[in-house]
Amino acid sequence: MTVLFTFISVHHALKAEKLLQTKGIELDIIPTPRSISTSCGISIILATQIADVAEEHMLAAGVQISGKYQSSEGSEWSKDGRES
Fold first, then answer.
1. What is the DSSP letter of 33?
2. How many CB atoms lie within 10 A of CB 59?
3. Is the dihedral of CA 33, 39, 45, 48 positive or negative?
4. Under a CB-based contact definition with an 8 Å cutoff, are residues 19 and 27 in contact?
5. Which side of the chain, N or C, has fewer Cβ within a 10 Å radius?
6. What's residue 74's pLDDT?
7. How far apart are CA 37 and CA 10, in angstroms?
């Protein structure tokens, strides 16, 4: 299972990427699926097991997350407790 984070702007997405990489968290940057959001075009995808820790780091650093979604292999993204 994977988690996808969306952001309010490209600035926040890039800030999150840099922050998480310095913390040694493995992630991928992907284009935000248009079925999820049309605002920021960049999202971060990472393993479910590290999503909560990653989210804590991002929030502590002032990164504004607009959405958090989960997916198992081959399934659609489902919302996970955040308003987008």
1. P
2. 11
3. negative
4. no
5. N
6. 66
7. 13
| Coil vs helix vs strand at 41 | coil
Tokens 């840099």, located at residue: 18
Domain 2-71: top CATH class: alpha beta
| CB neighbourhood size of 62 (10 A) | 9
pLDDT values of the chain reduced to their tens digit, one per residue, 84 residues: 899 999 999 999 999 999 999 999 999 999 998 888 777 889 999 999 999 999 999 999 999 999 999 987 766 787 874 443
| Domain boundaries of the chain, sorted by first residue | 2-71
Residues in Cβ contact with 45 at an 8 Å cutoff, skipping those fewer than 6 apart: 2, 3, 4, 5, 27, 28, 29, 30
